[in-house]
Amino acid sequence: MTADEGAALYRLMTWLSPAFPVGAFSYSSGIEWAVEAGDIADAAALRGWLAAMLAEGAGFCDGVFLAQAARAASARDEAALREIAELAAAFVPSRERQLETSTQGRAFIDIVRAAWACDGLDGLISACGVPPVYPVAVGIVSAAHNIPLAPAMHAFLHALVSNWISAGARLVPLGQTDSQRILAALEPVVVATATRALQATLDDLGSATFRADLASLHHETQYTRLFRS
Predict the structure, then answer these.
(1) What is this structure's pTM?
(2) Quick check: 49 and 189 in contact, CB under 8 A?
(3) Which of 92, 142, 148, 173 is the most buried (most CB within 10 A)?
(4) What are the tens digits of pLDDT across the range 85-114?
(5) Is the pLDDT score of 224 beyond 90?
(6) Residue 111 and residue 202: Cα distance in Å, rounded?
């Protein structure tokens, strides 16, 4: 491993670690309502729900936005970057999911600026025209730091599914071993979703996780809540 490769890995492990303070632990992406409604009652149900969210829902779409934002940022294509940022901000299905992705995007940018500043980053963020949502923020920062896109994609999707599992484990509840079994079972789904997202264009965007979208909408009026989404 070269020094540059080691630095890139170090930064990815830091930025997409559960310890990186973007507040991901406070969001469940609608999983909380799905548990209350009875859709998710055990480890097998959570695994199936998350596999769908990854392959056919928010996971794939966020991956596409990350890849497109990173490529536009690397090319310094400000017009494309603005289009991607605006589309990503408009693509979420509920108010709470909008809060989730925009808040994490803002926190990610603020912390990277404070601790990992680099030349050109501020200009790329300004070119978006709107505050970058989380996957766009990760794509821009990865490009600004010359981190290869494929590892950034896999690290992002791993962080995403890990946070979903953490939320599900607290809500069902599940033990640590069951949580790790789910993470292991979802490995091929993450790899396949990352591959699709890297090959996709904006024209390929779309999701078919209607129940998950409804869960996110219903969560806004859920009486007892641990999570913000």
Answers:
(1) 0.97
(2) no
(3) 142
(4) 999 999 998 999 999 999 999 999 999 999
(5) no
(6) 28
Other Cβ atoms less than 10 A from the Cβ of 116: the count is: 14
Mean per-residue pLDDT for 198-216? 95
Secondary structure percentages of the chain, helix, strand, coil, to 5: 75, 0, 25
DSSP character at residue 219: G
Structure tokens at 3: 């020094």
Q: Centre a 10 Å sphere on the Cβ of residue 153 and count the other Cβ atoms it contains.
A: 26
Q: Which domains does the chain have, with CATH numbers?
A: 29-217 (1.10.4190.10)
Total Cβ atoms within 10 A of residue 177: 9
Token digits of residue 85 = 């940022």
Distance CA 24, CA 89 (A): 18
Using an 8 Å Cβ cutoff, are 146 and 5 in contact? Answer: no
Other residues' Cβ atoms within 10 Å of the Cβ of residue 142: 28
Question: Which residue do the tokens 């640590």 mark?
Answer: 176
